[in-house]
Structure formats: structure tokens, C-alpha cells
């Protein structure tokens, strides 16, 4: 082989190595922990990874990882003392899914119980049901041994007081009297409906207060689990349930193909079952990043601008994410931990 041939071959091997390293940066044959949002949620990532390293299952890792955020009140959007509703009360939503059996446990509008993801797992493992809500879910939790505790804090009371002093702005009411854009309730139905294009109230879109923790875990045996936990939308109408605890919306797992989790405006995203759709795309052979992008694009066909993001991981350990570009939200941060890393890694993706 001539000198030029050797040089060309060397360059070829060099670029092949670079390509391999790029692939490895988003793929691992070993365990994987992936969750929504950046370093402020990193404690959850690290906790889930530690559970895997100590021999725990993917389900164990999802439960304990999300529970870590519940205890730490990650960014105020997970756990007690955050996102008070119109009455000033904090309630919790959570779900967990076993990708081997396709079993799901979920709770919504949970009161007085701090460990919502733990109660969700109890629903899955100790009932023949999938979803419990409201006061009955809280009583079930207490019967299962979860302690009753106050979810209100001085911070949540302050958030609610400030909101009341601002004439209950922003809120989630429409087609009511008095005018919800100017006054607090009580409200009653307006005689005429005024429907228009979906608009994002600027004060509601606050990416600094983030949203749900959604987590995907693959253990070393290839078992996949997914879960979510959140205290919902700030100033929500009491009784509101978002996408987080709904299987296929907040999260979805199938150990044969992969897992996905969503975060953002649950009242929009739950209409499209984005997590289920992302796993379906991966089942058809789509790579995780493209699967996430296709889910976002599909929602954009109906609602061009919304606050939302999706994370995806397939059964081989490849992963990706996508988000919708909205005012004040142009990049989405998420956390990853796998056998190629020494610590949780924060990654970011530009919104489309």
C-alpha cells in the first residue's frame, strides 16, 4: 500500500473512531438513568443510579429517584410546599410503570401524603386498580402505612397570598363571570363562549419553576421502568389532574422497546399521549431523538406554540430529547447517568 493509501486509511480510521465516540455518548449497553430537567434535579438522578448500583431493580430506582425529588422539593415543582391551587392547598400527582408487565400505579390530587410515587407503586402492587384519586387515595395511602403530613409550607402560603393580592392573576378560568383576567371568583358560567386560538399566558409560562420530574430507568438486566411526580400547575383549579399521572401521557415504559417521559403544560400534552407515542415510534425502529422530535412536531400541528418537552430511551440504552420552542423556553435541560459516566451529566437540546 502506498503512502497516500496509508494516510487515507488512517484518516478513515480516525473519523470512524470519532463517529463511534459520538454514538457512545448517547448509547450504553449498561444501566441507564434519565430524567427531565437539569442539575437541580440531579439528586434524583444520583439516587436512582445508587439504587441500581446496590442491586435494586429499575422500579426501585424510579421510585427512590423520584422520591428524592419529592423530599428535596426539587425546584418547588415536585413534592410538598409548592404549586398551591386556587384555595392555597398543595396536592400531588404521581405514576410508576413496569415495562416488563405493562402494569401501572398512579395517584392524583393526593392530599396529606408526601411520598406520592411510593403510593403510586402501592396502588400497582397492592390493588387490582391502576389509578386512585383525591381523598380516597389519601385514605388508601394511610392504610398502607404512609404517614399523614401537612403539605403546606410558609412558602406555599406566601405564593397563594401574593396571587390573591394580584386579583388572582394568572389563573386557568375562561368563559366565566366575573372576568377571570381581572378578578377573583367565585365564578359562574358566562352566557356566551368565546373560543379562540390557544394562547400561552406569559405569566403562566415560567420555565424557572419547571414542572414534573419524569424518569426512565434501564437496569443491567434490560428491565425498563418509568415514573413521574409533581405538585401540578400553580394556581390550578382544585381537582385538576394533569398529564403526569396518566400512563402514556406523563410516562410510558415497555422493556422490549424503550421508555419515555414528558414535562410541560399537561393540559395540552395529555391530549396527545406523547410518551406512549414516542415508545411506539421507537417500536417501529425510530431512534430516540427522532422519536421525541416527531412527538413534539405532531403536537405542533395542532398547537404551534406550547410549553413541553419529551425524553426518550430505547432498549439498547440510546437516548434523546426534544422540546417545543416557546417564549422564554428555547432549550431543554435533562439529566443522564450510565456506565460510561462517573457522575450525573446535564445535557441540553435546542427546541424545535
TrEMBL record:
Catalytically driven reaction(s): N(4)-(beta-N-acetyl-D-glucosaminyl)-L-asparagine + H2O = N-acetyl-beta-D-glucosaminylamine + L-aspartate + H(+)
GO terms for biological process, alphabetical: proteolysis
Signal peptide range in chain numbering: 1-29
Coiled-coil regions, chain positions: none
Function: Cleaves the GlcNAc-Asn bond which joins oligosaccharides to the peptide of asparagine-linked glycoproteins.
Keyword check for Lipoprotein: no
Family according to the record: Belongs to the Ntn-hydrolase family.
Site note Cleavage, residues: 211-212
CDD domains: Glycosylasparaginase
Cellular component per GO, a single term: lysosome
E.C. numbers: 3.5.1.26
Catalytic residue positions: 212
A Pfam family the protein falls into: Asparaginase_2
Name listed for the protein in its UniProt record: N(4)-(Beta-N-acetylglucosaminyl)-L-asparaginase
Entry keywords, A to Z: Autocatalytic cleavage, Hydrolase, Protease, Signal
Gene: AGA
Enzyme class: hydrolase
UniProt superkingdom: Eukaryota
Protein species of origin: Microcaecilia unicolor
GO molecular function ontology, one term from the record: peptidase activity
